[in-house]
Write a structure and sequence with these properties.
Length: about 280
């Protein structure tokens, strides 16, 4: 599903002494099937923005056109929109509530009107997609699982609805390095298998650089920069003025460049940095 956001403005507490402009005149486009990263400091408007994309929040002005439908139109049935746009909040495991993993993952599909048999098929498929076995954990309480497994079950609950757009808000927050890597791998797997549009909100610049095709940078409710990861992360000083760091690999390569090592300064990932360093060593 393609997404067009035009001149989006949102105000918290409008008409009260606490009135705050959370988003101001934001416009961008996301093509169908793209992987998009959203970055910005805490309070920049990232979470507010993504909550507009499935209609949880309504803008003060502007439009959000998804697959040709303006979801800000009061006549639009948001149920039809939300069944195609899955939103995984930060720490989604806190939203687990059912007696068993199966019931938790099946909750969304059943609410879409699917039969029990159809919902169970989706549960098995979604759990498999996130690397979990229905036979092993389907009848277990989700609260007995490890933190990483709970996170996967919560994501499986959204995947089971087969959204055409999957939005994830800091999906790796608070996880150990292995679970962090596992969650990123499953996100890649989901997109490869479902061919859906992925929107990832993260403070981890390495994840954004390695996974995204398009990056949006927010600051104080405004979209201040957008482009490919290379276009965005080569704006070093601009990002640092906003308090944003470079991806670790890019930061390391910058240090080499400052020490006189003839690298390009364009490597954003560990693999890219490794290749450049090997080429430099091979030329000596």
């Amino acid at each position: 599903m393609s997404i067009q956001v035009k001149n989006l403005t949102y105000v918290y507490g409008e008409g009260t002494p606490f009135e705050t402009v959370a988003l101001e005149d934001i416009s961008f486009e996301i093509e169908d099937g793209k992987f998009v990263g959203i970055i910005g400091h805490t309070g920049s408007g990232k979470s507010t923005l993504i909550q507009h994309l499935n209609g949880l929040l309504k803008p003060k002005s502007g439009s959000i056109i998804i697959d040709g439908v303006d979801i800000t139109d009061p006549e639009v049935k948001m149920r039809d929109i939300r069944r195609n746009i899955g939103l995984v909040f930060q720490y989604p495991e806190y939203q687990l509530f059912e007696e068993t993993v199966e019931k938790d993952v099946a909750f969304g599909p059943l609410n879409l009107g699917l039969s029990y048999e159809e919902a169970k098929e989706r549960v098995i498929e979604a759990l498999e997609l996130v690397g979990l076995s229905y036979d092993e954990i389907g009848q277990r309480s989700p609260f007995e699982l490890s933190g990483g497994q709970k996170r996967r079950v919560a994501i499986a609950g959204v995947i089971a609805m087969r959204p055409k757009v999957l939005i994830l808000d800091e999906p790796t927050a608070g996880l150990d390095p292995k679970s962090h890597k596992d969650i990123l791998t499953l996100i890649k797997t989901v997109q490869k298998r479902e061919n859906n549009t992925i929107i990832l909100v993260s403070h981890n610049m390495g994840d954004i650089a390695s996974m995204s095709e398009q990056v949006l940078v927010l600051e104080k409710g405004r979209l201040v920069l957008q482009g490919t990861p290379l276009q965005v992360f080569t704006k070093t000083e601009f990002l640092r003025k906003m308090g944003l760091e470079l991806p670790p690999a890019a930061s390391f390569m910058e240090k080499l460049l400052n020490r006189g090592v003839p690298v390009s300064g364009k490597a954003l990932t560990i693999d890219q940095a490794e290749q450049e360093i090997l080429e430099w060593l091979g030329s000596k």
